[in-house]
Design brief:
Number of strands: 9
Oligomer: single chain
Strand content: 15-25%
Structural class: alpha/beta
Helix content: 25-40%
Length: about 220
C-alpha cells in the first residue's frame, strides 16, 4: 500500500524550496575546513569500505559532522515524515544520503519496515539511537529491533569535534567550528540487544571525547 502524500502549506513549500539548498551550501563550506581522525577499538577498523549491508548506531547530536564525513556513501538513514523531517531529508539527499521515511515514535512500524527492506537490499543503514526527541544519548529499542529482525550485529560510531558550538536543543546538538579536527570513534559490532547498543555508544563517546584531539 502506498503511503499517503503529505500536504504542505504555501509557507512550508516556500521554506522547503529555500532552506535545503542553503543548508547544503553551508554544510559544504564548513565541511571542507574540517579534518577527521579515526580511532577504533582493538580488532576494529574504520568501516568506510566494508561491503554492505551494515547497521550503525549514532547519537543525534553529532549528525552534522556525520553528514559531511559520510557524504556520497549511499547511507540509508531513518527520517520522520514531519515537516522538520522533510527539511532534513531534502538537505541530506543532496549529500548522497537516502532518506528512509518513518520514525521511532508516531509511525515506527512504517520506519522499521522500510529499514528492513533497505537492509535486505544490501545497503548501509544508520539510525540515531536517541532520536527523534530523546532523551539525549539514551538508546531506544529501534536499533536492536532492526538488527534482531535481520540477524545482524550493530556497530556504534561517534564523531566529536575538537571545537564546536552547542545548541540549546534536547540533544545538545553540536556544530563543529571551522578548521576543527573531528575524532571518529568506532566500536566492534555488538549483538542485537538494547543494553549492548547503549554500552557500545557510551564507549564510542567516551573514547572520542577523551582522545587528545577531542578535548
Amino acid at each position: 500500500m502506498a503511503e499517503p502524500e503529505v500536504q504542505y502549506t504555501f509557507k512550508q513549500r516556500l521554506i522547503l524550496a529555500i532552506v535545503p539548498p542553503l543548508a547544503y551550501m553551508v554544510i559544504c563550506l564548513l565541511g571542507v575546513t574540517l579534518r577527521f581522525e579515526d580511532i577504533c577499538e582493538p580488532g576494529m577498523v574504520p568501516q568506510y569500505h566494508t561491503p554492505p549491508p551494515l547497521i550503525y548506531a549514532i547519537w543525534h547530536r553529532c549528525l552534522l559532522a556525520c553528514a559531511w564525513r559520510f557524504r556520497q556513501g549511499n547511507l540509508h538513514i531513518l527520517i520522520s515524515r514531519s515537516f522538520d523531517g522533510e527539511l532534513i531529508a531534502r538537505t541530506v539527499e543532496r549529500l548522497g544520503f537516502v532518506a528512509v521515511r518513518g520514525s521511532s515514535s508516531r509511525d515506527g512500524a512504517v520506519g522499521m519496515r522500510n529499514l528492513h527492506r533497505a537492509y535486505l537490499e544490501k545497503n548501509y543503514i544508520a539510525i540515531t539511537a536517541d532520536g527523534p526527541r530523546g532523551p539525549a544519548q539514551k538508546a531506544k529499542p529501534g536499533v536492536a529491533q532492526l538488527a534482531g529482525l535481520v540477524g545482524a550485529p550493530v556497530g556504534a560510531v561517534y564523531l566529536h569535534p575538537s571545537s564546536f558550538w552547542v545548541l540549546r536543543s534536547w540533544d545538545r546538538f553540536m556544530i563543529p567550528k571551522p578548521f576543527s579536527k573531528v575524532t571518529v570513534s568506532w566500536t566492534v559490532p555488538v549483538v542485537a540487544d538494547q543494553k549492548a547498543v547503549q554500552d557500545a555508544l557510551d564507549r564510542a563517546t567516551k573514547s572520542a571525547e577523551s582522545s587528545p584531539h577531542g578535548k
